[in-house]
Design brief:
about 190 residues; about 85% helix; mainly alpha
């Protein structure tokens, strides 16, 4: 009987060891599974965000183009402004705060600054509407295009672009003031 107990003791130890190995393998597989699932979710979220950003930027560009096509900024400025007020009021009531008068002006400016739809389509896959809004105050088209391309290549977030564009705008202002002084003759 004692021999049978010894054998069952060994057998029991082996069973426990095998169960521990199986549990460890299951844990490893669970960890791998969780890692894979997390990657899938993060990747899907990134693609969704990219599509949302692109769609929003393209929508704003098309809104701006449509409003420009109505010659709202041209010779009929007072009439155009009244139309914008009415349109923005209606759109805001129906679709929310993203279509206020204050929000429509950047859309118009966006279409003026980035007039090529193909370029906008390409850039909008990597830049958000917030990036474009940050680029709009840069007056020099070459500088604006350069910084849009830098955002795309270097994958700058909006905060980085904000910091850089603040510096750009300060330099532009200083250059304008210096040029004004020179033109007025107050500088040699």
């Amino acid at each position: 009987m004692k021999k049978a107990n010894k054998r069952s003791g060994r057998s029991s130890a082996k069973s426990t060891k095998l169960l521990s190995v199986a549990k460890a393998a299951a844990l490893i597989d669970e960890a791998t599974l969780l890692s894979d699932l997390r990657s899938l979710i993060q990747s899907a979220r990134q693609r969704i965000a990219t599509v949302a950003h692109s769609t929003q930027a393209l929508l704003c560009w098309h809104l701006g183009r449509r409003l420009l096509n109505e010659d709202l900024q041209g010779g009929r400025a007072a009439y155009g402004k009244q139309i914008l007020v009415t349109v923005s009021r209606e759109l805001t009531a129906e679709f929310g705060q993203a279509f206020t008068l204050r929000a429509l002006y950047p859309a118009i400016q966006f279409c003026q600054c980035f007039s090529d739809q193909e370029i906008v389509s390409t850039l909008s896959t990597q830049l958000s509407w917030s990036h474009f809004v940050e680029l709009l105050p840069i007056k020099d088209p070459l500088a604006r295009d350069f910084y849009a391309e830098m955002c795309r290549i270097e994958r700058w977030d909006v905060r980085t672009l904000e910091d850089i564009s603040a510096d750009i705008l300060a330099v532009e202002k200083e250059a304008e003031e210096l040029l004004d002084e020179i033109l007025r003759g107050s500088r040699p």
